[in-house]
Amino acid sequence: MFRKWFFNLIYLVLLAVFSPLLVYRALKHGKYRYGFKQKYFGRIPRRRNVLARIGVVDSPAAKIVWFHAVSVGEVNLLRPILKLIRESKPHWHCVVSTTSLTGMELALKLFGDELTVFYCPLDFSWAVDKAIQRLRPDLLVLAEQELWPNLISIAKQYGTKVAIINGRFSETGYKRYLWVRRFIAPMFRQIDIIAAQSETYAGWFHRLGASADSIRVIGSMKFDGAKSDRNNPETQYLKSLAGISDDDIVFLAGSTQAPEEAFAVECYENLKNDFPRLRLILVPRHPERFEEVAALLEAKAVLWQRRSKLYEVQEDNDTDFLSSSSDSNSGILEGESSRKAVKPRILLVDTIGELGSWWGTASIAFVGGSMGQRGGQNMIEPAAYGAAVCFGPNTKNFRDIVDLILRDNAAQVVHDQHEMEQFVRRCLEEPEVAEQLSMRAKKLVDRQLGATKRTLEMLETLFLADDGYKK
């Protein structure tokens, strides 16, 4: 009991300290304004309602499996394992929770027609207790590094099995956990099974207090979730919508942060005259930065288009036209109408959840979040499509994946705008170099497949010894 309220006190102090920032973001960006009752009071759907929605009567055979994914990346991670469960485990009835607004929007889009989706309660003991009582899950599955002491301990208190899948840490996160190891080690000992991505992460989990018997090295499920067929319907739809022809060479900078978009635009501007078939697609990591990147493009007075305006292009007899953030061409083509048939060679993707499909349009890819302090983003998706991939030097969040990629010479590290431009230019001038990177990347991804199936087999063992009905 003391431990629960100790964490409650910490959360309340943090909430008080950061409340001005939270209020600001709620008002400006719409964050944190939804799911209040679920987050703070645990008013998530009841078990009987979850089962009734899909026409199932509660029985000893019915298993409620609660998957929690914090945001967009983790929600996407769940797609292959939920598909596999739907095909092979008809008595497993899955629900999905998320924390962020963007994660919720994507989860509803991907799973809302078939599964119950809700906001996860914050880790206050009263909210978690109420949530567990209402849902009574048989298994709680936490994606990657979603480690919440009260959620885990109260789930165990009610007899729920707890598992971590695709387990990993950022280097910074691991060091922070080490500082408070004394307080959180009991949490790690309560986890029934941890599916770690690598031996390194397995060692970190063990050092933080997890039992060696609970840890399995499974590999990364993100390899299984990555698409590799450029002819998939989503990519082909986006390609058609954007007017990308087979002759175009797309340089895509995805999951970017400042100043990576500026680097990519400068790179494109320096190369476009020599390579007229080159196109640039920018996909910022966070939606609140869409307007910031739009302002950057306006300031540079370049021809560009918003992804959110492509519907207008499609409806206008497939005519491509120039658009800025204000649907005008002020300062770009003085005296010419914005309805003139002009194909902007730069696209700003200002929508959520499409990056995985946009990567399929890219011949050359830069994976963002790697030139600042964020620690990089997932570079598996462009590699699986066979793009020539580069990323910055700060990739501590994906250290094992980066080690694999660089060991196989399947991507290149670029340290600044100049090196980014050199990489893109070389891929354009020496297509055989880009092709070699492409082949090595695809082969690497193929060798890593299978983690999702192994993860499901691991989760199944948790039910083998206990098929009793949850009271």
What does this 3D model show about the protein?
This protein is α/β, with parallel strands linked by helices and 471 residues long. The chain folds into two domains: 32-220 and 450-464, 3-Deoxy-D-manno-octulosonic-acid transferase, N-terminal domain (Rossmann fold), CATH 3.40.50; 233-447, Glycogen Phosphorylase B (Rossmann fold, 3-Layer(aba) Sandwich), CATH 3.40.50.2000. 47% of the residues lie in helices and 14% in strands. It has 21 helices and 14 strands. It has helices at 2-29, 36-41, 47-53, 72-88, 101-111, 125-135, 149-157, 171-179, 181-190, 199-207, 222-225, 233-241, 260-271, 290-300, 310-315, 355-358, 380-385, 399-407, 417-429, 431-447, 451-464; strands at residues 63-68, 92-98, 116-119, 139-143, 161-167, 193-196, 215-217, 249-256, 278-284, 304-306, 346-348, 364-367, 388-391, 412-413. Strands 3-2-1-4-5-6-7 form a seven-stranded parallel β-sheet, sandwiched between helices. A seven-stranded parallel β-sheet has the order 10-11-9-8-12-13-14. Strand 2, helix 5 and strand 3 (116-119) form a beta-alpha-beta unit. It is globular and about 65 Å long. The chain starts with a helix and ends in a 7-residue tail after the last helix. The model is unreliable at 313-341 (pLDDT under 50).
